[in-house]
């Protein structure tokens, strides 16, 4: 069982085997200009992604759904989702961004007004700063608590889901509050509603997620099948990306500030945090010169791999210099922290400019 509300580190190979997630690399030959996260194996799994590849190739309608639960601050791991949305925007996707204020309320006791404020100041502001163009007509952003189409669909879909099934998928027990029990159905409706007639009818839809969100995907695909005769839903596709390792070596998590570099950190703080990150270096310089470092076990290398180095050639050089012991962690960290500082200087300027537009996106009429 995977608990989508916990932050345990997962074994990716096991997931592929156990839950029938297919390797993403099988798709690579068919994708024109794949995203860097795809090329580098950070997006490692998929379900039914062939439909999306076909839609992109034929330039036919398809949708991407990626929700955000406003419950804390965005960190650089969350950036991966936005990077993918920006890429899908260039591929002509309809982009749906549900703001999961109902989930925040039931799972974290955050009220709707607080969620709205967080969504604007933290999430939408960062999404704009990271390059998503909200002024395009094909970007649909909404609060779950205000979307009657989604709420009505969730209620309709709930008719064919029972309590035992929810317990089996999510491990809900006797103490789970009833609002929380209902929230997965709202998320199912978030994912399926772009296929309603009023939203353009059935179409391939992809949900890019971390593997901890797979229970929602499996439930959504099952429900889409159960309601196929009524709505003609196409089971949604999904992709799965690895989590970024936190500064301490655990998964990066907003609820554990010591693990995370937040997008709202100042450039100086971000720089300092990179310097404090756990590396795959050896116990002594002599040992590292002799044996080389372990980039596969290094939070700094992950930052370079996921975010900071765009050129594959440059990345290969960093990797081999580490492996053969010609570069030591101190020098490598200095370079990575300067790159991170530069990235944060850019993003903080763009965040400042993004504020007004972010306010307008969720403004009440
Ligand atoms: Fe990580 Fe760089 Fe040290 Fe290698 S040299 S372990 S990549 S910090």
From TrEMBL:
Annotated signal sequence range: none
EC number(s) given by UniProt: 6.1.1.2
Domain of life the protein comes from: Archaea
Annotated family: Belongs to the class-I aminoacyl-tRNA synthetase family.
Job of this protein: Catalyzes the attachment of tryptophan to tRNA(Trp).
Organism per entry: Methanobacterium paludis (strain DSM 25820 / JCM 18151 / SWAN1)
Subcellular location: Cytoplasm
Pfam families: tRNA-synt_1b
'KMSKS' region (motif): residue ranges: 251-255
GO MF annotation, one: tryptophan-tRNA ligase activity
Keywords, ordered alphabetically: Aminoacyl-tRNA synthetase, ATP-binding, Cytoplasm, Ligase, Nucleotide-binding, Protein biosynthesis
Motif position, 'HIGH' region: 70-78
Name of the featured protein: Tryptophan--tRNA ligase
Enzyme class: ligase
Gene3D superfamilies, alphabetized: HUPs, Tyrosyl-Transfer RNA Synthetase
Catalyzed reaction equations: tRNA(Trp) + L-tryptophan + ATP = L-tryptophyl-tRNA(Trp) + AMP + diphosphate + H(+)
GO cellular component, one term: cytoplasm
Record's keyword annotation contains Nucleotide-binding: yes
GO terms for biological process, alphabetical: tryptophanyl-tRNA aminoacylation
């Amino acid at each position: 069982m995977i608990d989508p509300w916990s932050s345990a580190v997962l074994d990716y190979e096991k997931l592929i085997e156990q839950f029938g997630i297919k390797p993403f690399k099988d798709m690579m030959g068919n994708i024109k200009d794949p995203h860097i996260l795809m090329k580098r194996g950070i997006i490692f799994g998929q379900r039914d992604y062939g439909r999306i590849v076909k839609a992109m190739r034929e330039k036919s309608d398809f949708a991407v759904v990626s929700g955000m639960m406003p419950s804390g601050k965005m960190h650089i791991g969350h950036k991966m989702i936005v990077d993918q949305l920006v890429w899908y925007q260039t591929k002509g996707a309809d982009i749906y961004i549900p703001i999961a204020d109902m989930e925040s309320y039931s799972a974290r006791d955050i009220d709707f007004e607080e969620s709205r404020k967080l969504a604007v100041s933290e999430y939408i502001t960062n999404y704009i700063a990271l390059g998503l163009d909200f002024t395009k007509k094909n970007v649909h952003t909404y609060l779950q608590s205000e979307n009657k189409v989604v709420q009505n669909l969730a209620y309709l879909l709930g008719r064919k889901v029972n309590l035992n099934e929810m317990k089996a998928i999510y491990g809900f027990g006797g103490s789970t509050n009833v609002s929380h029990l209902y929230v997965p159905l709202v998320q199912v409706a978030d994912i399926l509603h772009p296929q309603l007639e009023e939203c353009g009818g059935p179409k391939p839809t992809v949900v890019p997620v971390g593997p901890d969100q797979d229970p929602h995907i499996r439930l959504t695909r099952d429900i889409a099948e159960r309601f196929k005769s009524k709505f003609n839903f196409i089971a949604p596709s999904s992709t799965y990306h690895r989590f970024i390792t936190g500064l301490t070596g655990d998964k990066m998590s907003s609820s554990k500030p010591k693990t995370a570099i937040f997008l709202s950190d100042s450039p100086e703080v971000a720089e300092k945090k990179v310097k404090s990150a756990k590396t795959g270096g050896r116990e002594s310089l002599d040992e590292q010169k002799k044996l080389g470092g372990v980039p596969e076990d290094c939070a700094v290398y992950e930052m370079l791999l996921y975010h900071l180095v765009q050129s594959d050639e440059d990345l290969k050089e960093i990797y081999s210099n580490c492996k053969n012991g010609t570069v030591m962690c101190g020098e490598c960290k200095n370079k990575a922290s300067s790159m991170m500082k530069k990235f944060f200087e850019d993003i903080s300027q763009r965040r400042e400019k993004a504020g007004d537009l972010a306010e307008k996106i969720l403004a009440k009429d």
